[in-house]
Amino acid sequence: MKITSDFDGGNIRVIDSKNPDNIRLDIEKDNASDFYQWFYYRVDGAQGRALNMALENAKDAAFTGGWENYSACASYDDETWFRVPTSYEDGALKILHTPSHDTVWYAYFAPYPMARHHALIAEHAAKDGVTHSVLGQTLDGQNLDLLHIAGGGKTIWVDARQHPGETMAQWWMEGFLGRLTDKNDDVAQALLKHASFYVVPNMNPDGGVRGNLRTNAAGANLNREWGIATMEHSPEVKLVMDKMDETGVDLSLDVHGDEALPYNFIAGGEGVPGWTDVDQHRLDKFQNEYEKATPAFQQKIGYDVDAPGSANLTIMTNYISHHHRCLAMTLEMPFKDDANHPDADFGWSAERSAQLGHDILPAMLAVIDDI
Fold this sequence. Notes:
Elements: E1 2-4, E2 13-16, E3 23-26, E4 40-44, E5 51-55, E6 73-75, E7 82-83, E8 86-89, E9 92-97, E10 103-107, H1 114-125, E11 130-137, E12 143-149, E13 154-160, H2 168-180, H3 186-194, E14 195-200, H4 205-210, H5 235-247, E15 251-258, E16 265-267, H6 277-293, H7 316-323, E17 327-334, H8 350-358, H9 361-366
Helix pairs in contact: 2-8
């Protein structure tokens, strides 16, 4: 039996794999950082063997609340992912599974490899009304891709995967872009009469390839770099900030995943200086309309709202809300499951993430006259 993670997005360190009933593993830290939680590895020669795998350093992971009531993802083809029995005991994440195939992959969530990212960019760049450009290069020399969907005079920015291990964010992008560019979708066409879109499907390609949870090649947490980014430390943010200053921003949506909370929810910029009743009305209206569009979105459970004037302006949503005086939001999805609509076999999944992306367009259309 062999365990490997030497591939795009892979992350695991093997301590001892001689005994299938006592496989000892560690999650590697993000480079130049103490963050870790993302894991993704492949086991060969496992068919019919009862694997008892312990990720022994789980107790010191970035968000230990993420292990409670969590089930790891597994796949026999590295494409279709299902959940397997998992427990958090004595500081270790324990995964118990007897594979029915010789090769099996395990991951924190369904991975989104760079090959699929390139295919996503190529697919949409070939469509009428869509223009692909490269904002610049990352520290590892990868392209930071931007899709511009031409439309009306208002400007909407949407991005995903500032935190590279939050792969559900890019699965969400598939559903969002698929509907937005559908010439036969009445909601998409009505929205594009009013607004043009700038979309960054993957803000952190370096971190994704490296198998990081939260940081880029320099160890920067991109969602703490807004307003202070440099080309030496966080070029991904600097490039997007500069482009936003060029285009202006009327609405911004930053798509993420949350390790601990088993719900889909939005965090707004309520704590920024100068927050007004008009700002609150736009945020409330957007969330109400998203909730009408899909039962997967809810408003009862989410992050605590910042006290007035206390928001951290290096966080993207707060920075854009304050700097561009517009409706800016962060969408969070679970690594676990949607507790309101649980699925024992798949949990919250790539497919459900994409559907949530598809379903956001009516909310955008509902507030288009208010932004």
